[in-house]
Write a structure and sequence with these properties.
- Its cofactor is pyridoxal 5'-phosphate.
- One of its GO terms (biological process) is glycine biosynthetic process, by transamination of glyoxylate.
- GO terms for molecular function: alanine-glyoxylate transaminase activity; L-serine-pyruvate transaminase activity.
- By secondary structure, this protein is of the alpha/beta class.
- It has 14 helices and 17 strands.
- It folds into 2 domains: 266 residues, Type I PLP-dependent aspartate aminotransferase-like (Major domain) (Aspartate Aminotransferase, domain 2, 3-Layer(aba) Sandwich), CATH 3.40.640.10; 120 residues, Alpha-Beta Complex (Aspartate Aminotransferase, domain 1), CATH 3.90.1150.10.
- 43% of the residues lie in helices and 16% in strands.
- The longest helix has 21 residues.
- The termini are far apart.
């Protein structure tokens, strides 16, 4: 028998698309929670309070607003559980993760025969994938044309696509869904808690799913926020779904939502972790204290600083997100993106490549909203490029960065 040494994981800077850097206050709540079962009174109270805080953060009166145990994929699976075999769906993709959303929908909507024909990559006749090229955004015009032509029951889109760093047109999507009577489903994994928006302002969208470890700044394996309109729940209740664990109505019961109403105490659905509940609860408290509006402005400001610095290094930024910069390296280093990323990660600087062609570099700033953190990212990235022969004057880059922050201080 081999017993390995105790696992030691060093501190690194998570400067990719996610997971982000969990707030120390969240880690403290996680570590200090007492050992308690999932029906203990304080655990249930924490879940109900978290549900109410989520409604504030998401900007909704949807009763069915709660957290799904797991990562963002768990929340998305709950949202897509209402899609049944044979349902007509249009999915808009423009990167890796919206592409996986598309695969999820194809698996859900495939008939038994269609799934058996290609179980890992089914091609159901009822699903239309509108593939927008990498580096481009899904526009309202694209959505309008597709829904007018195909007239589906459901339409799905990622709000922010971290595979390519592009923001898609949420307003245009919602308006088109409303015009055509389509139930919209939105992957808000990367936008919730980063962009300042209220989901109730988009009535064409009936299902929302996000994640804990990006804008919420919590641990990856805690709770993925979801929210559903009454129309979504009525549709699900009528059609049913072939899942117990990821059944939106059954999941909601543990969060004190039964028969479309808030109740004082949740009922059993699955085993919940007291540690996860405590961490998630604290992350929501912190976000409400900061306010989504303030945090959104902070992301805009710090992304602009990072964007300016890497552009001055000769990189070309192709993204328009505020928590993530996606870039092409200077011509001198073109084709060496993976080499650069690997050398950075080996030094405890966790940046990422894109996961689909063309290969680009992704640098994220999730929960790194201060001058010292941005300066550290810029310094590390510049040093890595210089080690590969970029010949960047880092004194000039540092001066540019300082001017960006000094201008903000003067303005205040």
């Amino acid at each position: 028998m081999t017993i390995f040494p105790q696992l030691e994981i060093p501190e690194t800077i998570a400067a990719g698309p996610g997971p982000g850097n969990t707030d120390p206050r969240v880690l403290q709540r996680f570590a200090s929670a007492g050992v308690a079962d999932h029906m203990q009174a304080d655990v249930l109270r924490g879940m109900i309070e978290a549900k109410l805080m989520l409604r504030e953060i998401m900007g909704t009166s949807n009763i069915h607003t709660f957290g799904v145990a797991g990562t963002g994929w768990s929340g998305l699976d709950v949202m897509f559980s209402a899609v049944m075999p044979g349902d007509k769906v249009v999915v808009f993709t423009n990167g890796t993760f919206s592409g996986i959303d598309g695969l999820t929908v194809r698996m859900k909507a495939a008939t038994a025969e269609e799934l058996a024909a290609n179980s890992l990559d089914p091609k159901p006749a009822s699903v239309t994938i509108i593939d927008v090229p990498h580096g481009e955004s899904v526009t309202g015009e694209i959505v309008e044309a597709a829904l007018a032509r195909h007239k589906p029951k459901w339409a799905a889109m990622a709000h922010w696509e971290t595979g390519s760093g592009r923001i898609n047109d949420l307003r245009g999507f919602s308006d088109a869904c409303e015009r055509h009577g389509v139930m919209g489903l939105i992957d808000a994994v990367s936008s919730l808690g980063v962009e300042d928006f209220r989901i109730d302002d988009f009535p064409g969208v009936h299902g929302w799913a996000s994640c804990p470890q990006k804008g919420i700044c919590c641990l990856p394996l805690t709770y993925a926020p979801v929210s559903f309109t009454d129309r979504y729940i009525e549709t699900l209740r009528a059609s049913g779904t072939r899942t117990f664990v990821h059944h939106p109505i059954m999941e909601a019961r543990h969060w004190g939502i039964i028969d479309g109403k808030d109740v004082d105490k949740g009922s059993y659905h699955r085993t919940h972790s007291a540690y996860a509940v405590a961490a998630f609860h604290e992350a929501l408290r912190i976000l409400l204290q900061d306010t989504v509006a303030r945090r959104a402005k902070d992301y805009e400001f710090h992304e602009a600083a990072l964007r300016d610095a890497v552009t001055a290094m000769g990189c070309k930024v192709t993204s328009n997100m505020t928590s993530l910069v996606v870039l092409n390296l200077p011509d001198k280093l073109a084709g060496r993106e993976m080499e650069l990323v690997q050398s950075c990660r080996a030094a405890g600087f966790g940046i990422w490549p894109t996961l689909s062609e063309p290969v680009q570099v992704r640098i994220g700033i999730l929960n790194l909203l201060n001058q010292a953190a941005i300066a550290d990212i810029v310094t590390r990235f510049g040093a890595a490029m210089n080690a590969m022969g970029a010949d960047i004057d880092m004194n000039e880059i540092t001066a540019r960065l300082d001017r960006h922050f000094e201008t903000a201080m003067v303005a205040q």
